Amino acid sequence: TKDVVVFPSEIRLLNDDDGGKTGSWYGVVRSLSRTPFNIVDSEAPTGGVEVICLPMAKGGYKLEVRNLRPQADLDGKQIILKTDKEGSREVVIPIRVTSLAGIRH
After folding, report:
1. Which residues pair with 38 in a beta bridge?
2. Separation CA 5–CA 89 (nearest Å)
3. Phi, psi at residue 73, to the nearest 5°?
4. Going by C-beta distance under 8 Å and a sequence separation of 6 or more, which residues neighbour residue 100?
5. What is the arrangement of strands in the sheet containing 11-15, beginning at the earlier edge strand?
6. pTM for the structure as a whole
7. Residue 102 above 60 pLDDT?
8. Residue 57 burial (C-beta neighbours within 10 Å; 0-12, 13-18, 19+)
9. What is the DSSP string of 12-56?
10. What distance in Å separates the CA atoms of residue 26 and residue 66, rounded to the nearest whole number?
11. How far is CA 39 from the centre of its chain?
């Protein structure tokens, strides 16, 4: 297992067919061993998705992923955080989009 992890471990979006309003998702990145690390870069899907990484007291980072549209084309994409931590050079955050129509019975 990797030492650097993100909570929650994936981004879950609900597509309610309202025209795809944009929103933000928040998470925390931490080292399980509590050793220092830096996020040196991030990769986000196209479409204006923006990743903000803010250092937190006692290590780790608060994440804000902005401009997420809960549309089917975003399902299966991922955010990739690049760190300077040996053994955890890349932290992948999968994106899951669920249709509201798909969960109605």
Report:
1. none
2. 11
3. -70, -15
4. 14, 15, 16, 17
5. 11-15, 90-99, 78-83, 39-43
6. 0.87
7. no
8. exposed
9. EEEE-SSS---EEEEEEEEETT-----EEEEE--TTT-EEEEEE-
10. 9
11. 13
In whole angstroms, give the CA distance from residue 15 to residue 73. 11
pLDDT tens for 16-69 read 666 567 889 999 999 999 999 999 999 999 778 999 999 998 889 999 999 998
4's enclosing H/E stretch is strand 4-7
Residue 104 structure tokens: 């109605």
95 alpha-carbon distance from chain centroid: 7
Q: With CA atoms as reference, report the closest residue to 17 among 102, 96, 100, 103.
A: 100
Q: Which two tokens stand for residue 87?
A: 């053994």
Query: How far does the chain reach from its first CA to its final CA, in angstroms?
Result: 38
